[in-house]
């Protein structure tokens, strides 16, 4: 009998059952903590050794599904205070009933666990950044569409609106019977029908001047044909 008692005592010390002095009273199975709200964690000394007064400050950790460490809720907690207030962040993860607390003592090296409890009101995907990006994308899309509409409908720009005439390049004309090329300077053409006006007296004078200049050019051509080109042709014929 004494041999069996010695074996059980050794197992108890080795597994730490005799040192489970901190017993959690809140949360317990069925407790619901609301994310973003103040929640109270409490515990008692169950009378086993070592007493809570013999423990060094504690660290409080939150664990979730598959025994995953979610985060640290507090450090340097006095074991004899018997309670500690926490606020679980809404971004802690999804709602669930697989959460539990772990108290960690460095001296002596001990760990204490609470029962599993439920967390609700949690969300791991805040929508504020997505909403801002969507608004920015919508604004950029509207601006691009407005610019495209202006290009498609030919909305005039400031530079285009200030231009009243189109200037064409200088044209050089060479006739079959002429020996000297003549140059014709273009006349500015109005860009719209509203710019067309009836010819004035000065316009008729310019037309008459151009007509007289044309007749003078023809006279010069005839003179050269009769007095220069014709004698040259006759001389060539007689020489043959």
UniProtKB/TrEMBL annotation:
Span list, region Disordered: 128-153, 179-211
One GO BP: cell wall biogenesis
Keywords annotated in UniProt: Signal
Keyword Signal: yes
Comp. bias (Low complexity): 128-147, 179-202
Protein name (Swiss-Prot/TrEMBL): Yeast cell wall synthesis Kre9/Knh1-like N-terminal domain-containing protein
Domain Yeast cell wall synthesis Kre9/Knh1-like N-terminal span(s) in chain numbering: 26-119
PANTHER family: CELL WALL SYNTHESIS PROTEIN KNH1-RELATED (PTHR28154:SF1)
């Amino acid at each position: 009998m004494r041999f069996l008692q010695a074996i059980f005592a050794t197992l108890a010390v080795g597994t730490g059952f005799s040192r489970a002095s901190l017993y959690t009273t809140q949360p317990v199975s069925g407790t619901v903590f609301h994310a973003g709200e103040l929640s109270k964690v409490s515990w008692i000394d169950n009378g086993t050794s070592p007493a809570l007064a013999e423990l060094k400050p504690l660290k409080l950790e939150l664990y979730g599904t598959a025994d995953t460490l979610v985060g640290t809720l507090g450090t340097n907690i006095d074991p004899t205070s018997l309670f500690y207030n926490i606020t679980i962040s809404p971004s802690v993860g999804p709602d669930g009933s697989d959460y539990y607390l772990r108290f960690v003592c460095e001296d002596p090296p001990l760990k204490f666990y609470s029962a599993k409890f439920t967390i609700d009101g949690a969300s791991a995907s805040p929508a504020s950044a997505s909403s801002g990006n969507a608004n920015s994308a919508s604004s950029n899309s509207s601006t691009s569409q407005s610019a495209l509409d202006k290009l498609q409908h030919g909305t005039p720009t400031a530079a285009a609106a200030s231009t009243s005439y189109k200037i064409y390049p200088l044209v050089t004309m060479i006739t079959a019977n002429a020996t000297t090329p003549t140059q014709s300077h273009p006349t500015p053409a109005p860009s719209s029908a509203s710019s067309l006006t009836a010819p004035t007296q000065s316009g008729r004078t310019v037309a008459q001047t151009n007509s007289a200049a044309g007749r003078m050019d023809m006279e010069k051509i005839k003179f050269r044909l009769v007095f220069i080109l014709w004698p040259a042709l006759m001389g060539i014929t007689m020489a043959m």
